Amino acid sequence: MKKLALVTVSLIVSAACAPEKKQNPAPVKTSIIGTWKLITGITIKDNDTIITDYTKDQEMIKIINETHFAFLRHDKNTSNDSTAVFAAGGGPYTIEDNIYTEYLEYCNYRAWENNSFSFEYSIHNDTLTTIGVEKIDKIGVNHINMEKLVRLK
Question: Has residue 8 been placed in a domain?
Answer without folding.
Answer: no
